[in-house]
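Appendix B: complex inputs.
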Amino acid sequence: MSLFKYSAPSSFYPLAGRLVPWFGTLAFLLAVGGLYLGLFVAPEDYQQGEVYRIIFIHVPSAWMGMFIYLVMAMYALLALVYQTRLSAMMMEALAPTGMMFTALALWTGALWGKPTWGTYWVWDARMTSTLILLFLYVGYMALVNAIDDKKRADKAGALLVLVGSINVPIIYFSVKWWNTLHQGASVSLTQGNKMAATMLAGMLIMALACWMYSIAVALCRVRAIILERELHAAWVKDIREVRT
Amino acid sequence: MSAAILEGRDLGLARGVKQLFSGLSFAVGSGHALVLRGPNGVGKTSLLRVLAGLTEADAGEVWVRAKPTQRLSAASRSAMLYIGHANALKDDFTAAENLTDQLALDANPASAGQQLEALKVVGLFERRDVLTRRLSQGQKRRIGLARLHLSRGAAHKRVWLLDEPTNALDGDGSALFLQIVDAHLAEGGVAVIATHLPMALSGKVDEMHMREIV
Amino acid sequence: MSAVLASEQELSTPERGVWLTLTRDIKLAMRSKGELAQALAFFIIVVSLFPLAIGPESAVLKRIAAGVVWVCALLAVMLTLPRLFQSDYVDGTLEQLALSPYPLPLLCAGKMLAHWLSTGLPLAMVAPVLGLQFGLDASELLVMVAGLLIGTPVLTMLGAIGAALVLGVRGGSILMALLVLPLYIPVLIFGAGAVEASLAGIDATANLSLLAAMLLFGLVTTPFAAAAAVKISLD
Amino acid sequence: MDFFSMDGRGFYVWGSFGAFLAAIVIEIVLVRLRIHRAQKAVCDTLGSADPSGTENSDAGKGSK
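Resulting structure:
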């Protein structure tokens, strides 16, 4: 039962406050290390030249965009089955970060595509699915923002993300199917040429940095959400008294 | 009260930052009516919706026949008959069609003959084939009365949850309403009625005054 | 006592709930035929705009026919989605549906079926005429109609979830489009893909069976999701 | 200088890295603003007797 102790916003608020600096620092250190590896240590790619270095932020962004939606789907399940308020708040806290990473994946992908394949946008399966993922984030945030009653917004958002997450594999599959049918530009970003070990290491470290950053920023945002919602709860006053 | 049909146990509900009620407990036994009173915005409608299972309470439980019931569970749905501010009528249907549909949804087995009889009782027999859009507010309310008339007693939908049921009804209509509820109670039914008007029921009536929580 | 037995008997057949809402919504739709015609007219007019915008070259038209018809069918279905729950929500019927002894998922299934019969089915019926305008021949038209017949119910079912979620919310219809359209993409891909496959002389059954798989999966799951969404919106 | 030109494709590389950095900086600023505002709202509801500046004590630790 001790695990459940922290599912109450009142006890999660201080816990999150203690965790944020740790994850934040970790993210910063990993990012410095990853960028150093990626920009200075990793050798030039013999096919693409220097421009391939976008990979060190493009791939982690794309991963985080997908991964955060998955995490949100898990919280959605918790929110609907166990009716924990905190899960819904975590969803709300994660969504903007997930959306940001998805948008960054598209942006960096476009900037990579232009010098490499001569066009900013290709309707390749991965880019297209990422675009649809962005739409799913937009839908969730629009729905949650449009509903005034927080209790209802929580549940409606959770249901939408759950339905969306069941659809994500179908969407990916259909887009892939569509792509092969049209024999369109099939863009292979990482395959084909063997990656140098330092490249892979840099990319993984950057992914880890993004992960830690997402945790830190989501925890920070969930604290704000907890305070906004529990403005009049008794425990909030206690916390302020302790601090003053 | 040993034979409590409907109980509220420690119910609490907040809307936004406003706490409507908390720690609210009561029990209504067979043949009893509970009349909810209190100023506007005090949470009478919300309480009825919580009892019906439409709104989820923040705290507490609703018990039916001495058993806790989940929100909108089968046990709850087969017990609760809720009539809110909205009449749940389709403008494009006639009065008779609307009544038939409502009873069908309630799984109420009243026959066509019984339905015509009920329309006669509530004074809509002559207007039964008129589209509902052409009926007055009071007449629309009377379709609900016909539904109640056919749902009396303990057989089905035993617990009536009625929100300002006499709104828009004239004197005759209100008297008719009281008759129907009295018959329901006499046959072992239960009613919770939110109203700001006097409710001259002849059966066993409890009143609950709801107050603003500061 | 006999009344008790009767009501229990009736509930021993909960699937009657499907029939109840199905007949009721169909009857309602028949009372306002104008609304039915509107969606159909929208579909026909928007499809007819494309040749005007793109030009009358038959090769190009044939090439885009499937996509145009499918996108327009998607939009037409989406425009009619508010009909599913909106008026029931406003006049209080939705509360009564939720409180009915019949299981809400079954009642929702009946509503979805009625919605498809009054929108998806007519769209699929007019589609061949529009396909002719784009120069499709008989076998391609057949695939298109088959695809629409299998695919539009999926549009209705997914749309029902979105329509229920936005009940009573500001900016409801645009918001609903945001929620629903991304979910429609697989249907669009497989539906239009079927016609394109037959245009290219490939067997279209793969596409159609994928659509059918989605239909089956949707039949089993979406009534529950829509019922959950209705409950959330009533809270 | 070579490093910044990236084979003459500096625009693409630094456009990517720049957008990435900008997005993260903006997000951090927005989140910190949000929690500051939330904490200020709490102070306001507790009455005006609250000494200002206390809310920075923990928000300052926010995601770095």
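The radius of gyration of chain D is 19 Å.
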